[in-house]
Predict the structure.
Amino acid sequence: MPTPPATTDGLLLVDKPAGVSSHDVVGAARRAVGEKRIGHAGTLDPFATGLLVLLSGRATRLLPHLPDEPKVYEARIRFGTETDTEDLQGAVTVEAPRPTREALLAALPEFVGALQQVPPAYSAKRVDGQRAYKLARAGAEVSLAPVRIRVERWEVLELHADDAGRVREADVRITCGGGTYVRALARDLARRVGSAAHLVALRRTATGPFHVRDAVTLEDLREKRVALRPALDALPGFPVQTLDDAELEKLVRGIDVEARVDGAWGALVRADRPVLVALAERRDDRWQPRVVMREA
């Protein structure tokens, strides 16, 4: 019988399938790892698939420092109809002509850079203390304020058009900052070209330096075929400094130590093996511990 990993502190990448919630995946991870403390770097809608970045145990303390941008998504946009959820699970609310290839490609540059985006009514945004999607499901009118987002890049992977050159579906890859709703990008792009659209597929392939190709499946979690990656793997790109025994004892008591590598932040590890002891912030020539991974 598979056994839980020896440590419950670490990084776990999961490839979420369609039809389950991110909360379901977190629950499966808790059972697989044997740890209640599981944190995530952004959820996915139930219809979406792809990368969930999870931290377990004491590693959850690293979440505020996790390099989790940009996000990379692959999506299929269907033109001609808009739905109340802005995806394939909703009811059609608007019908409009499909756009031409030329109009669609000409409009894309307007959706790159710093943008103001109105989140979908069916989203986890809060309205008067309640989730917007709960209000929308109850039939309430949901009005959400625009939020600032950033889109770095659109890549058109394939356009599926009819004989008249009208685009039925577009396969795209979008690189963007956190907090971006790809459903809303598709909605606004279609409206800009006098059409309507909704998503029929969405997959997150990357979050910062983490990629879905390195992820385990939900079935792996359910069968407990998982191995947590070391907590240090959650901090790629951070300068690493090893500690001698005296420094190790100081760090776990919250006492600063000498900084011997460059950088504003440093990952401090044991001298005998690369196990993360603390994430520290530089103050002049000293490391001030901000996240300590073991008890004194």
